[in-house]
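Dear U.,

For the methods section draft, I wanted the exact inputs and outputs in one place so we can describe them consistently. I've listed the two proteins in the order they'll appear in the manuscript figures. Please don't edit the C-alpha cell lines directly; just add comments below if something needs changing.

First protein:
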Amino acid sequence: MIILNALATVINMVCQIYFYIVVARALISWVNPDPYNPIVRFLHNVTDPVLDRIRRILPFNLGGIDISPIVLLFGLEVVRQLLLQLLGMIAQGLGGY
C-alpha cells in the first residue's frame, strides 16, 4: 500500500509540473519569444507533440485563439483525477485482505 501511495504522489507531482509547463507555454505564446532561448525550446519540445495532436483532432481556432492548451489542461486534470481515484480504489481493495 505504501508503494501505491508513493505512485499516486509521483503521478500527482508529474501532472502538476506538466500543468505549469503548459501554462508557461501558453503565456510565452502571447509575446514574441526568442526561438533559440533554451527555456523556450524546452517548453516547445515538451508541449508541442501533445498540442499538435490536439490541433489535428480539433482543427479550428476561435477567432485566431488557439484553444489546444485549454483542452490539454482540462484533459490532463481529468486523467490525473481518474488515475488517482483508480489507485485509491486499488489501495482500498488491497487493504481489505
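Second protein (the one for the lower panel):
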Amino acid sequence: MFDEPVIDISTQKVTTVTPDTTIAKAIGIMEKNKFHNLVVLDSAEIYMVNIQDLLLASNPESHVDAFMFTPHCIHRDTQTIDAITELVNSGQRGAPIVADDGKIVGIVTEHDVMKRGAESLLLKDTTAAKEMTSDPVCMEATESIGKARSIIRKNHLGRILVVDSADKLAGIVTEGDIVRKLYKPKRKMTAGELTGEKVPRMEQPVSLIMNSPVITADVDANLAEISGLMQKHDILAVTIVRDQNLAGVVTISNIMRYLSELREKAKIDVEIQGTINAEYTELADEIIDKEVVKIARSAKRIHWIKIVIKKERDRGGVSYYKIGVHVKTPNKLYVAHGEPGGTKTQMTARGAIEVEVKADKRRWDFIEVLKDALMSVRVQMENDRGRGR
C-alpha cells in the first residue's frame, strides 16, 4: 500500500530559483513546466513559492522573496503512504524531499501521487461513487465571471461547474483560470469582447474563460482510473457522471485524504498466530494489508484483529490450512473460520451467538482460505452497518 520510499515516486531533478529572481521570470518557468510550486534556494535554506500568489503580484519585476514561505519537507526514506499524510496535514500541494543532511534531493507533488495511484490495486477497489462530492455547486454559462469568483470564495471551492440553459454540463472554471485569464491574461480581455457592448471584465459571461469539454468519468470508475485522468490532463478534479447526467466531483484532495485516512486505519494492531510457509509470506502479507484496510472502513472503530493459522494434514498426508479471523469492535466480536470445506461465520454480541455456514467448494489453497476468512468478517460488518447496528 504505497510502501516504497517517497524518493522513488518523486521528481529528483529539481528546478530551483534564488530569492532575487523576478516574479515574471518565475511565472515563466512555472507556466513552461506546468509547475504549481517552485523551490527557492537561499544558501542552505529551502523555501517555496506558489503560482497563485505570484500571479496576483502588482509588480512583475519585483523579486520572489516577498512571496517565499518555509515549506514542510519530507525525508527521502519516508514511506510514500506516510508522505501522503504529511502532505495532507501540511496543506501543501507539493513538498521538497531532503536527505539526512537536510539538502534537497527531490520534490513530490500531488500529481506524483496520482501517477503512482493510477497503478494502485488499493485505489482500483474503490469507485468514484464512494468518494465523490455529490451535488456540486454549478452556475449557468451566461452568468458573470465575478459571480463565479464570489461563489468559489464563499464556498471555499477550487472550481465551479458551468451548465447550459438545458442544465447540461458545458464547462468548468477554476480559481486558477480566473487569476490567469483576468489578472495576468495572455490575451487581455477588454470591454470590446462583447460586440457592441462595453462590459467590465468581471461582468462578462463565465463562458468566455471556462474550460470545455470537461474531463469526466462514470460513477463506476475506480479511483485508480480517476488518478490517471488527473495525472494525464494535469487537472485537480474529475467530474463524475451517471447516465451522462452530472452526479458529483472527485478532487485530488478527495483522493489524498482517502489515502491518508486509510493509513490511519491501517495502524490497527494485527496479531498473527501460527506459521506461514515462506512461499506464501509475501502474498499473504499483501492480502492481509489490503483486507484489513477494507475491514477498517466497515467499522467506526476496531480494537484489534487476530488471525490464527493452523496447518493440518488429511488422511492422505496432504497438508492444508485452517484459518480463524477474530475482529474486536466496541460492540461486537466478529469471528470467521476459513477451512477446506468452506467458510463458517460466527458473530457474538451481548452473549448471543449467530452461526451461518457458507456452502462452497473444497478449498485447499492457503491463499483462498485466507481471503475467504477475511472477506467473511468484512461482509458481516457491512451487513450490520446496512441494518443500522
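Candidate sentences for the figure legend, describing the second protein: The chain has twelve helices and 19 strands. The radius of gyration is 26 Å.

Thanks,
Y.
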